[in-house]
Specification:
CATH class: Alpha Beta
CATH topology: Phosphatase 2c, domain 1
Helix content: 10-25%
CATH architecture: 4-Layer Sandwich
Largest sheet: 6 strands, antiparallel
Shape: globular
Low-confidence stretches: 36-41
Strand order of the largest sheet: 1-4-5-7-8-12
Oligomer: single chain
């Protein structure tokens, strides 16, 4: 199927951001976080200077500018917040989102800290995943096919981060596509590792609104124990090997480092929220209903901040990334912080 501009119906390339015929923006809004701080320049912690070169080094003393602890963005159809947490020296999570006409594509990735340059893997995976899913949707693929296209592109992007001396950056991945489906919304998720997707019911309980639930299945030792019937989930999470990953995206991974059942779909009328998050959040609260209660704020951005603050109050032992997409959704972009 040929992709066409929604403004003038002329053919467009799947990688195009603007229609060459009429100038219409083909993707309404994009965000990828963390990014280089483009806001006001803060004084250098070492010498007090306020001028930095293009790579972020102080021109007075050469010290690298400290990265902000938190980034946030409100795209209307999705709000995202990522925070360094308390214990980690840097943020190795990444989140990316694209708001299209009639669909939203999101990816959250968590760098595997035991690998080298994990933030390189998470950043590459999140960006490649959402772009590939967007392109697949533009070609007329189904949401399932687009989610898999995003996952495959993310895996390839991570493989390309391999260093010359055998460094193998690695990360987890959870991606989602939210799109209208008649009088309801279809949510399709794909994951590798233990970053999670949840549906959070925040409105009245009626036949068209699915109850709060986890949508993804972890690729972890704890989940393997549960699947084998050896332990229930609570006991498995207390096992010292609970967070050991059995699948992930790595620079040294094969072409298909995911399970055969990594894609899942939920259809719901809402109201509610799609939550994508790294384990920096769900380690402290894995229950979908409890997360729904915390996220039910006046706006998705406030809800995302509340979930991150909860994780920090609970210990903040890991990086924390949250993406909240409201259902039904709206598409007026807000602020980037």
């Amino acid at each position: 199927m040929t992709a066409r501009c929604s403004g003038c119906a002329e053919p467009v390339g799947v990688a195009d951001r603007f229609c060459e015929a009429c100038g219409h923006e083909l993707a309404a809004t994009r965000i990828a976080l963390p990014h280089n701080d483009s806001g006001p320049t803060h004084p250098c912690d070492n010498c007090g200077g306020s001028r930095y070169d293009a790579d972020g080094y102080c021109v007075g003393c050469g010290q690298l500018r400290a990265a902000p602890d938190r980034f946030a963005a409100d795209l209307g159809a999705v709000a995202v917040v990522t925070d360094r947490g308390i214990s980690h020296a840097r943020n190795e999570d990444s989140v990316a989102a694209i708001v299209l006409e009639g669909a939203t594509v999101i990816a959250v990735c968590d760098g595997v800290s035991t690998s080298e340059d994990p933030q390189a893997a998470s950043g590459a995976a999140a960006r490649a995943g959402v772009e590939a899913s967007r392109g697949a949707l533009a070609e007329g693929m189904s949401a399932d096919e687009a989610a898999m296209a995003g996952l495959a592109a993310a895996a390839q992007a991570v493989r390309e981060t391999a260093g010359p001396d055998g460094q193998a950056p690695s990360c987890t991945y959870v991606g989602a596509i939210v799109r209208g489906d008649g009088d309801a919304v279809q949510i399709t998720v794909a994951n590798v590792g233990d970053s999670r997707a949840y549906w959070l019911q925040t409105g009245p309980d009626h036949a068209g609104n699915a109850p709060s639930q986890r949508l993804s299945v972890d690729d972890s030792w704890a989940q393997a124990l549960v699947d084998a019937g050896a332990m229930d989930e609570q006991a498995a999470m207390n096992d010292p090997r609970a967070h050991t990953l059995i699948r992930w995206l790595g620079a040294d991974s094969g072409p298909t480092p995911w399970s055969d059942t990594c894609v899942r779909t939920l259809r719901t009328a809402g109201p509610g929220l799609l939550l994508l998050c790294s384990d920096g959040l769900w380690n402290y609260q894995p229950d979908a209903a409890a997360l729904a209660a915390m996220a039910a704020a006046p706006t998705p951005l406030l809800g995302a901040h509340e979930l991150v603050e909860f994780a920090i109050r609970s210990g903040g032992s890991d990086n924390i990334t949250v993406a909240l997409a409201p259902v039904p959704w709206f598409t007026e972009p807000g602020e980037v912080q």
